[in-house]
Amino acid sequence: MSPHDLSAIAELNGTFPCQAIERLVQAGAIVSEVPLKDGQVQPASLDLTLSAEAWQVPGSILPLRSEAVRDLIGQVGRRKLDLSEPTLLDRDKVYLIRLQQRLDLPKGVGAYTNSKSSIGRIDLATRTLSDHNPRYDKLPTGYTGELWVEVIPRSFDVILQAGIALNQAIFFSGRDLCDDRDLAPFAPLLYERGGGPLVKDPSWQEPGVFLSLDLDQERVGWVAKKTYEPVDLTRIGSLDPKEFFDPIERPRKPMLWLEHGRFYIFSTWEFIRVPPWFAVEMLPYDTSMGEFRAHYAGFFDPGFGFGDAGDEQGTPAVLEVRGFEDDLIIRHRQPICRMVYERLAERPERLYHGGIGSHYAQQRGPALSKYFAR
Q1: 20 to 30 A from 132, CA-CA: which of 67, 71, 271, 280?
Q2: Could you read off the pLDDT of 241-270 as tens digits, one per residue?
Q3: pTM higher than 0.90, yes or no?
Q4: Which domain holds residue 278?
């Protein structure tokens, strides 16, 4: 990495858009063992792809400050897998898979990771591990080393192969999370289904916007079935939804009973908009919202619900929901998640919308993963 490239990257402040991520690649701060594919750099994130090297391990484990992830594999690795060919991963087993990308980040540049939307919607849990770092998904500034992903199929067996992307990385220098005053000039950020603008409920004091559950539509959601059929991630758009999910139609009363341990897909009543100068992270489990996990995939690229020219009036967010402790009752318009906006270091050169092949730009209601036939 040349001093000129380093200084240019160091001058950025905020979350990196696509062109800044591409500069990291060109400067050697992101190194891939195979050339990056078209579309792998998203408007404000980088899809991380699986290598052929994978291990089954007996349970989730994090490295200590003195350990690399490979040290863990030497201690607890049970069975080595070769993902150069399609490979079956069993439900409820834990796997560590090395990613094709490694990092040599400059001082002051860090990253965090999320599961991709398509992966959260099949209840495939992923968390990123890095060397000498006892935290999931948070990569320290200036990190140098390999990246690994922990993979746990929850509801279904899955078939994986090297080159598939399960999660994504977001890079930043001085991450700039926005408060209500920062966002005021860009309102409205929320719309109702009919297109009318919405304002934030003043009783919510925390930064960001709050979204609620929509149980007033013809199909309000899906619930995962028990099945011997695996979800084949090597084939997009080929799976029959009826083999894996039962639909949930509009309930007679505006509430639903959810069984502990089962996996559900719902959508939000509000339509959210992400202007080009921002990205959004859906915050993880929050006990103030109820005793459930509200999502796995939590990143929304700039342009989501905004369109290429600001002509869209929002898009509903899809939620992957699982109860933690007990059965529970959820209700129509119950607050279910908080969306926090973060400012980008530069306006991205491309936005998230249908024109660049974004799978969920036009989703309405609880859309299933791209691996299922529509």
Answers
A1: 280
A2: 999 999 999 999 999 999 988 999 999 999
A3: yes
A4: 180-356
